[in-house]
Amino acid sequence: MKSILTMAWTAEDPSAFDLAAKIARTFGARLIGLEPPSYGVMSMAWADAGMGAPIGGGLAEDAEERQRVAAVKQAFDQRAAGLVSEWRSADDSGPTAIGTIGRAYDLIVLPQPGALPKMPESVFETALFDSGRPVLVVPPGFTGMVGKRILFAWNGSTESARAISLAMPVLSGAETIEVLSVEGAMVPGPTSAEIAESLKSHGLNVTGQHVKPGSKTAGQTIIDRAQALGADLIVKGAYTQSRLRQMIFGGVTRDLILSSPLPVLFSY
């Protein structure tokens, strides 16, 4: 892993920058900070979330926007000190730019999305669907490091299989990995035990576990198991069910996107 792209939505939540810089130092990677889209160009994202926002702003709004971006850049510069780093400005950071720009980097690191004032969920989705790269989502206030104790959320799907390959630079440095499957949240495919055996062939310390969720959702079952293990990272193939279905009915991917207290590495 030699190049990392990261974005923060506000300077008040620099957790993505913190973790991206730590990973860059660990891997000797180049770190690129991407200026967040303005509130104006993201007006459609607010509308998707049921919140109105003006497409254009007056001078006061423009000044506030400049202050927001300047504060985000300052937060990036502070954390990138001593690294080979670069800041990419608004000229190439429209609302969908992170997906196309992200194709050139090994990893994308973003803050956990949600309702205002968090980053719009659509920015995460653009990065995930359009880049073809793994996306690491960092919850607010996270100050640790990732990659020593990993829970791999397996559901038998193609997306989960792809996650193995994309996450291998991180998996290969782990002290312990548990491959977890949840009854009722599987599709036809290999079992967690079979995936654990496959990963063991790479010289990794891996166990497989299949659990019943009881009264909990599959997403909460994964989170609870990760915390019980003392995991610092969850790895998940994203959206085996369609995005629209998950928005309406919920689903494991969306549970982890919006509410995981641990960083989650997603791939699609």
UniProtKB/TrEMBL annotation:
UspA domain: from which residue to which, for each copy? 192-265
Q: Which domain of life is it from?
A: Bacteria
Pfam families noted in UniProt? Usp
Please give the Gene3D superfamilies that the UniProt record associates with this protein: 3.40.50.12370
InterPro entries under this entry? UspA (IPR006016)
Q: Which SUPFAM superfamilies would you find in this protein's record?
A: Adenine nucleotide alpha hydrolases-like (SSF52402)
Q: What is this protein called?
A: Universal stress protein
